[in-house]
Design goal:
The chain is of the alpha+beta class. The chain folds into 2 domains: 36 residues; 72 residues, no CATH class. It is 44% helix and 21% strand. It is built from 3 helices and 5 strands, in the order H-H-E-E-H-E-E-E. It starts with a helix and ends with a strand.
């Protein structure tokens, strides 16, 4: 086997490995998607947005809701604490029931806005 033939074999092998990796990623995504679909709302979310006293606010990108209001002291609300936990697990941003939720840099203030169409 000469150098050219060996190079061709190695390239073919690497292409097969790449194809297998792409297929594995697709299968993992499908499995993960199925698992997420099977989770009910109660299982997936441990907080209820209606139990958080949102305040309307105006920002650089328009109106949104936030808790707590600017200058307001944070109350001990279990749903707010659970939302904070979920936001931190999702890199400070998540989407639920048509709303975008995000965590402010102070790591306790939460903003939310309906998903734009």
């Amino acid at each position: 086997m000469n150098e050219s033939e060996l190079s061709e074999v190695v390239v073919d092998f690497l292409n097969a490995v790449e194809a297998a990796a792409v297929n594995a990623k697709r299968q993992i995504a499908e499995i993960k998607g199925l698992a997420e679909k099977e989770a009910t709302a109660e299982e997936k979310w441990s907080w209820e947005p209606k139990k958080i006293p949102w305040t309307e606010a105006e920002g650089a990108r328009g109106s949104y809701e936030r808790y707590p209001a600017e200058g307001q002291k944070i109350e001990s609300i279990p749903d707010h604490k659970a939302l904070l936990s979920d936001l931190k697990e999702h890199k400070n941003f998540l989407f639920r029931d048509g709303w975008n939720y995000w965590l402010f840099p102070d790591l306790v203030t939460v903003g939310r806005k309906p998903k734009s169409k």
